[in-house]
Amino acid sequence: MTATAQGIYFDNNATTMVAPEVVEAMLPYFTEQFGNPSSIHQFGNRVGQALKQARVQVQTLLGAEHDSEIVFTSCGTESDSTAILSALRVQPERREIITTVVEHPAVLALCEQLEKEGYTVHYLPVDGRGRLDLDAYGRLLSERVAIVSVMWANNETGTLFPVERMAEMAKAAGVLFHTDAVQAVGKVPIDLKRTAIDMLSLSGHKLHAPKGIGVLYLRRNTRFRPLLRGGHQERGRRAGTENSAAIVALGKACDMALEYMEHEQTSVRALRDRLEQGLIAAVPHCFVTGDTDNRLPNTANIAFEYIEGEAILLLLNKLGIAASSGSACTSGSLEPSHVMRAMGIPYTAAHGTIRFSLSRYNTAEEVERVIEAVPPIVAQLRKLSPYWGVDGPVEEPEKAFAPAYA
Amino acid sequence: MWEYSEKVQEHFFSPRNAGAVKDANATGEVGSLSCGDALRLTLKVDPATETILDAGFQTFGCGSAIASSSALTEIIKGLTLDQALQVSNQDIADYLDGLPPEKMHCSVMGREALQAAVANYRGEEWKDDHEEGALVCKCFAVDEKLIENTIRANGLSTVEEVVNYTKAGGGCSACHEGVEEILNRVLGESGKSFAPAAGTTPLPVQAGRPRLTTVERIRRIEAVLDSVRPTLQRDHGDVELVDVDGRQVYVKMRGACAGCQMAAVTLEGIQERMVEALGEFVRVIPAEARPRPQEPELAACA
């Protein structure tokens, strides 16, 4: 089966196809290699050895100094929660957290809950291209801050944050630094031993491993409290019998990510750039969001003005093309993407953003098919839109059509 | 992706009456740009009969907003204005074979556009009282504003009351935290505080009723069992009391009741009767699930 057997898949920031080699690597751990890795007998021991190998594979991709710094979890969300809650528990006298307004809900929802429990959370704003102000960040660092949690790459726009520099600043101020690197791992080179990052989260299903496996990188000597207590798995840092097959799969996926890193930076980037240029040239009134100079090589977030994202997705889906939207109606909330709002993208555009996220399994032919498919879809929806006239947007659309309530 | 009915998809992919009606004499504009839905409804009304001769829509919105707009225009064409005003948002949703709960606001927008257009035709000023609020209960599509208003209007103070008055939280329970937060906020406005424990139904306790002694408790438990035994025995089954440990009542199912697929239901019914008879909560548990008595501790090795 190829990646395109069921259509064109451009939604790899949501989840990736499990690589066939990864599937092959994990299959024996459902059948003959079924032992509990904590058991002393040969059945368990063989699985234990496989886990050890996977730990080294993850260590290598992350450039971590020790394999013991890798803690297997169930997902990125669990890793994020473990990191932040641990930092608060080991430093009860510190009641502040620094994060950004554009984090994934895995961090934002936790921070909102912590605010209700009396913690102070500082949300760093972003500019129109999704960039942070490091001076403002520096001013917030103090002995009251327990942890800084900043994503490495934004899931919607792909914008990269300077987490290495930010970690150094946190270290100088004596503050723990965590990064949610779920979108960055496997797409950009990472060498943790050369950074001051204390904790890092990753998720297997974003790099062609299955869902249900994540990692918390925990720098040696970082004070720590587990989220899940119980057995002594993961050196007591995460209780619960290991998801052996998924861990083996993640190890293999990490190996492959290293192998494909350059491909990601060159070929995937070239496909993404061609897609963007093709769409911008073919569709009037659309633009790329985020920091185009500094972002993931696979992500193109394009705002199609005067129409709504879900409607675009439904029409794309009819043609067998899968993408994603941060628009209100796909998320179950009535608000448009918090990332677009934080960047100050006007509502007429924020609702019509479509994220195309590519992978090594995408082809130039697929890109061309999408470039062909999108313009008539946009034109069709604009014909229905009250903000679009005969051949362009109505003048001052927000005034021309004043909603009865806003 | 949402689970859209065939009809919603059909009206989205092939919308009817898209675009503005030529020579329209009524226009209704509603929506919220910030929420991503806006609808302009145009009508051509026969002045002699007030019949809607034609209807057209222009919608900025998602799949269900476009489908709802399309459905609305189909429903109202040929109706008089008075008949059209009887069309509810539920009628629009029903016409489409239902909308996902989170998308019901699309049908509301359709109905409001219709009201606005009729008001426009009649030269009246139309003001909607619609206030957007975050959807709290997805099972019954109840928004924050409705819950807040209902709490204030009826002096509600528990989650259970909110469920009874609004249906919010009556389904999967996922929104109970959200309902509690709203209760906390609204009650806080009048200096009251929300007591989470009040969310559960207090067991009926008779005023001045003295606490039962252990013997009395066991007698009442046995009385309940005796009252159900004839029914069970008729079906060649039985039940007997094995032990009472605090709030745990251990029973043994006998005969046909042992291994019966409906045993759990039977136990539930017995438990309900016992709670009523004792005026306190007890749990009726099969004796097989009883924890084993601990072995006496061995003397530590010297």
UniProtKB/TrEMBL annotation, chain A:
InterPro entries: Aminotrans_V_dom (IPR000192), Aminotrans_V_PyrdxlP_BS (IPR020578), Cys_deSase_NifS_bac/arc (IPR017772), Cysteine_dSase (IPR016454), PyrdxlP-dep_Trfase (IPR015424), PyrdxlP-dep_Trfase_major (IPR015421), PyrdxlP-dep_Trfase_small (IPR015422). Gene3D superfamilies: 1.10.260.50, Aspartate Aminotransferase, domain 1 (3.90.1150.10), Type I PLP-dependent aspartate aminotransferase-like (Major domain) (3.40.640.10). The keyword Protein transport does not apply. It is an enzyme of class 2 (transferase). Keywords: Iron, Iron-sulfur, Metal-binding, Nitrogen fixation, Pyridoxal phosphate, Transferase. One of its GO terms (biological process) is amino acid metabolic process. One of its GO terms (molecular function) is iron-sulfur cluster binding. The keyword Acyltransferase does not apply. Homodimer. This is Cysteine desulfurase. It comes from Allochromatium vinosum (strain ATCC 17899 / DSM 180 / NBRC 103801 / NCIMB 10441 / D). The lineage of its organism: Bacteria, Pseudomonadati, Pseudomonadota, Gammaproteobacteria, Chromatiales.
UniProtKB/TrEMBL annotation, chain B:
SUPFAM superfamilies: Fe-S cluster assembly (FSCA) domain-like, SufE/NifU. Belongs to the NifU family. The lineage of its organism: Bacteria, Pseudomonadati, Pseudomonadota, Gammaproteobacteria, Chromatiales. The keyword S-adenosyl-L-methionine does not apply. It comes from the Bacteria. Residues 221-285 form the NIF system FeS cluster assembly NifU C-terminal domain. Residues 135-184 form the BFD-like [2Fe-2S]-binding domain. This is Nitrogen fixation protein NifU. GO terms for biological process: iron-sulfur cluster assembly. The keyword Electron transport does not apply. GO terms for molecular function: 2 iron, 2 sulfur cluster binding; iron ion binding. May be involved in the formation or repair of [Fe-S] clusters present in iron-sulfur proteins. Keywords: 2Fe-2S, Iron, Iron-sulfur, Metal-binding, Nitrogen fixation. Fe cation binds at residues 35, 62, 106. It holds the Pfam family Fer2_BFD. [2Fe-2S] cluster binds at residues 137, 139, 172, 175. Residues 3-125 form the NIF system FeS cluster assembly NifU N-terminal domain. Its cofactor is Fe cation; [2Fe-2S] cluster. Binds 1 Fe cation per subunit.
